[in-house]
Structures are given as structure tokens and as C-alpha cells.
Amino acid sequence: MRLALVIVAVLAIAVPATEAAAPPAETFSVEDARGVVTMRASGIVIGRLERGEIQVVDLSPNDQWSPRVNGVPRGKTVWTRGKDVNFYVPGGKYRLTVRGEGFSISARGQGFAVLDGNPDVNGATGTYAVGDVDPVPVPQEADRVVFGSPTTLKPAKVVP
Question: How far apart are the C-alpha atoms of 147 and 76, rounded to whole Å?
Fold first, then answer.
């Protein structure tokens, strides 16, 4: 009986401590964007590129997750250019660069993104949102956006 009481007491202390230690995940989304988005984060990301190029670098190569492009598992570093490209990173840490037009990205986790919009003839650059806030236009000058908890990730290198 005492053993059961000790086990329940230890679990009552351990479970809230592990939940408090886990960093909160948050969503980040980009819709119908034009320009360049560079992300460095951990978690999951899925997206579609109408026309342009993507580069995905798996920053945790020893885990079970590998990037997928058009449904096909790829290596730890993926670069592709084309039309109607779908991509998916099921988990882990990654660096993602999308350059082109008509792309959408949905991510859940922690990290940051550098957004640099390239307006079309009507001045539209697409929209982005962090969490549950209303979407706002992608900035026309490079701007850093953090989602999830602050992390110790290194800043992304933005290549024009």
C-alpha cells in the first residue's frame, strides 16, 4: 500500500514537470505568396509551390524523419525546381527555403521565418499568419517572424 502511494506521489510530481518542460508549439502559415521564405524550425511543415524552387535541409539527420517531395522520401538535403511541387517534412529540425510564386506553407512547431515578398503587378505578395491572428501581407522587405517559443536556433542566411 505504501509503495502504491509513493508511486502515485512520484507520478503526480513528474507528469506536470514534463509538460512544463515541453516548449509550446504554434502554427505558422503562408498563403499564395510570391518572393522568398526561409524557415529554420523544428516540428512539421507541409507546402505547395506553384512555380519556383525549394531547398530542404534536415538539421537532425539521425532521426527517423526525412523530407518528402511530391510524395517521395528524399535524402537529408533536397533541392528541386519546377511547377506544382508538393513538399512535406514530417518532423525534426529543418531549414527550408522557398523561392517563387504561388506557394503556400503550413508549419506547426517552434522556430522562425524570414519573409521577403516580391509583389505582382497588383502589388500583392501573399499573406502570412502566426497562431490564431488574422493574416497580414507578406512584407516587401526581409522581415523575421518567430513562431512557437523562443529557440536557440541560429539565424537563417537570406540569399537574394
Answer: 24
